[in-house]
Specification:
Layout (H helix, E strand, L loop, with lengths): L4 E3 L2 E3 L1 H12 L16 H20 L3 H7 L5 E2 L2 E7 L4 E4 L21 H9 L9 E6 L6 E12 L5 E9 L5 H18 L4 H5 L6 E2 L2 E2 L1 E3 L5 E3 L23 H8 L5 E10 L2 E16 L2 E10 L6
Antiparallel strand pairs: 1-2, 3-4, 4-5, 4-8, 6-7, 7-8, 9-10, 11-12, 11-15, 13-14, 14-15
Length: 310
């Protein structure tokens, strides 16, 4: 019983007592303003917290905190992710995983697929639809010689002395969060609404934010005719999307369009083959309405359905 305390007539453990005291005193949780409810995977949530913590340090202590980051690289270089800091011109100020990058201007760096990584990050930081500024690209795993798929989140920081920086960290071999395709589809729908046909080349560009790993943003009309193909670079081959079935005979597009009569966006789950296993796997389709030349069209993408354990 020596490990137990009495509080308000109840017996509680000291750790629980501390939480109760903090709540009673109105203490603010540092994650109170950090919404992670859109993520299914623990690794994703931990990465966002990891980068957010560093952003809070920079916001509070400014450039003085750089000495702490440099003297404690092991704290910011964990298995699967590490921290980095850039100024808003694309100059690397700190990299826990790749010290040799520090001081280099990486504004124009591209990955093997032609993605302009820094440019994607700077655009993501301005995107209100992408609150944690996610970008997806290929990069090195520290100490390895081959490229790996990577997803990184970022926070913009203004230090006490007025410097503007961004802090980021990425996951190698990331889980495919539903939130990732929600961001790119919603952004593509907004681009089409604003620019019309002028936005199509950007969405179709393999080096744009709208295409990464096995994800391809595509667009189609209510009758199922394709405007941007998820498979090829042009539309010489038209398929009837509304008649397409999954591996168990369901018609996910036809079902989705019925729901879209009363909604602006929908998620549909369907079954597909997988090259890594004999069993069928679940995929999810996300579709959003938008307007092209005064008429309704649909923008969509497909990703893996998150699977437990998360």
């Amino acid at each position: 019983m020596s490990l137990l305390k009495r509080w308000g007539g109840f017996i509680v453990f000291p750790a629980a007592l501390l939480i109760l005291v903090m709540l009673a005193s109105g203490s603010k949780n540092k994650y109170e303003d950090l919404d992670l409810t859109m993520y299914q995977y623990r690794d994703t949530k931990e990465l966002v917290r990891f980068v957010y913590n560093a952003a809070l340090m920079l916001k509070k202590d400014g450039m003085k905190s750089m000495d702490y980051f440099r003297n404690n690289r092991n704290l910011f270089n964990n298995k699967g992710h590490y921290l980095y800091i850039y100024d808003m011109t694309g100059r690397n100020l700190y990299s826990a995983g790749m010290k040799s990058l520090e001081g280099k201007d990486l504004r124009n760096i591209t990955d093997r697929n032609g993605k302009k990584i820094t440019e994607l990050v700077l655009n993501a930081l301005k995107d209100k639809n992408n609150p944690h500024a996610w970008v997806h690209y290929s990069w090195w795993e520290p100490g390895k010689f081959y490229p790996v798929p990577k997803s990184s989140c970022h926070f913009k920081v203004k230090t006490p002395d007025g410097k503007e920086l961004y802090v980021g960290g990425g996951m190698d071999y990331p889980h495919e969060e539903k939130e990732f395709i929600r961001i790119v589809v919603d952004d593509a729908a907004l681009l089409i609404k604003k620019k019309g046909w002028e936005g199509f080349p950007e969405i179709s560009n393999p080096a744009s934010q709208y295409n990464y790993r096995d994800v391809r943003v595509f667009a189609f009309r209510p009758n199922g005719s394709i405007l941007i193909s998820p498979v090829i670079s042009n539309n010489f081959l038209q398929i009837k999307l509304l008649e397409c079935t999954d591996e168990v005979g369901h018609k996910p597009f036809a079902k989705a369009l019925k729901e879209l009569k009363s909604k602006n966006s929908v998620w549909e789950v369907f079954m597909a083959k997988n090259r890594y296993q004999r069993m069928l796997v679940k995929k999810c389709l996300y579709i959003r309405k938008t307007i092209l030349e005064g008429k309704e069209i649909f923008v969509a993408a497909i990703t893996d359905l998150p699977q437990p354990p998360y």
